[in-house]
Design a protein that fits this description.
This protein is an alpha/beta fold. It is built from 6 helices and 14 strands. β3, α3 and β4 form a beta-alpha-beta unit.
């Protein structure tokens, strides 16, 4: 009987500790820096990018003051939002996200590409009445450049593209394969003398991104696998696939590097464990 009580006591204590840790990770920010090098930039040139993804309407401090302050400290040349800053929900307010983007724009130029939640409010307008219109109007009132299968020159040596992935590729059940023919032809027309960056919300299709010749891919979507097991990685993807291959961090395939953010928020599965960091990128 005593052994049984000890085991139950240990399990209860462990559950309490894990619950406290989860709540802590959900409410706090930790910055992670990646430093990349390329010979496509002039010698001595240093570019600093602040990369944000999967915020899902979360607030860090009043009016997101903690997130804004973290970005300001980085002193970025550009701020890149790689999808799902919003959540497809009639219960979530759009204004705080737009206010955040407006304040980001006072720090550095902001570029935003869609994730599955931006796609969902456009696809399911009957379910989310007026949300897509509110989102579009909100963007118009900010200085954000919204990249839906579009490319912009960041400067004379760097090009940024935003991939608009069809919503069917986020399906939790069917999960169709993504082929090179699904990748927009206009985003395949790259000047290989320049440093080409692609914001692509889902990291699942890394092999296709690499095949197109991009130097750097910035993704999110997997939320780091929600729970991370040291030495193994993320536990589950939003499509409920266990131990996804590209859950968080740096991956290299041929000449392409992909950085996958664990995101700044969560939604249906409100869980983060051993998965606190949100990150910033330096590029030389």
């Amino acid at each position: 009987m005593k052994t049984w009580l000890i085991v139950v006591g240990i399990l209860v204590i462990l559950a309490v500790v894990i619950t406290i840790r989860v709540r802590y990770e959900l409410k706090t920010l930790q910055r992670t820096d990646y430093i990349l090098y390329t010979d496509k930039l002039p010698e001595g040139k240093h570019i600093r990018l602040a990369v944000i993804s999967d915020l899902h309407n979360r607030n860090y401090g009043e009016n997101n003051c903690h997130l804004i302050e973290m970005v300001k400290k980085v002193k970025p040349d550009f701020i890149l939002a790689a999808g799902d800053l919003i959540t497809a929900s009639n219960r979530k307010e759009m204004e705080p996200v737009m206010d955040l983007l407006l304040k980001f724009g006072q720090v550095a130029p902001v570029y935003y590409s869609p994730g599955n939640h931006e796609k969902r409010i456009a696809k399911e307008q009957t379910r989310f009445p007026g949300l897509e219109e509110k989102f579009r109007k909100g963007l118009e009132q900010t200085n954000v450049v919204y990249l839906e299968n579009k490319t912009v020159a960041l400067d004379e040596t760097m090009v940024l593209a935003g991939l608009d992935i069809d919503y069917k590729f986020y399906d939790k059940l069917r999960q169709p394969s993504y082929e090179l023919s699904d990748f927009p032809k206009n985003l395949q027309e790259l000047d290989q003398k320049k440093y080409n960056i692609l914001m692509a919300h889902s990291p699942k299709f890394f092999s296709i991104y690499s095949e197109t010749g991009y130097d750097l891919v910035l993704s999110g979507h997997y939320h780091g696998g929600a729970v991370r097991i040291p030495g193994i990685g993320g536990v589950i993807s939003p499509q409920f696939k266990p131990f996804p291959k590209y859950s968080k961090g740096k991956y290299v395939l041929e000449k392409t590097t992909m950085l996958v953010s664990s995101g700044c928020g969560s939604h249906k599965v409100n869980l983060r464990l051993f998965n606190r960091d949100k990150w910033i990128l330096h590029l030389n």
